[in-house]
Amino acid sequence: xxxxxxxxxCLLQGLHGPFFSQLGQFLEQAxxxxxxxxxxxxxxxFWSNKARFIAHxxxxxxxxxxxxxxxxxxxxxxxxxxxxxxxxxxEAIKLAKGLGLRxxxxxxxxxxxxxxxxx
Length: 119
Hints:
Elements: E1 8-11, H1 19-29, E2 33-38, H2 41-46, E3 53-55, H3 63-74, E4 78-82, H4 87-99, E5 102-107, E6 110-112, H5 114-117
Helix pairs in contact: 3-4
């Protein structure tokens, strides 16, 4: 079932370990949907909800188009990422801003919203 209303999160690269999986579980318990877009095996290993796991296996150049499709198909409202300078994340932030989405970056232990980072 596609969750068209409410908050739909797409979590990108995160910390090594279970933090993003636990965050996804918390978001689901709060009534949102949490999807994980992955770029490597570590992301897959630590993400517990395999039904909401999306592996990106194409090139960096294909990422903006692929993310755009994910956003449209999964009705994404928020993008969560660890750091804002990784090339895949910089592209995601650009796309999110253009679509009016809320990108959230975890930087040195705190979450920063779009208003503080990407003016």
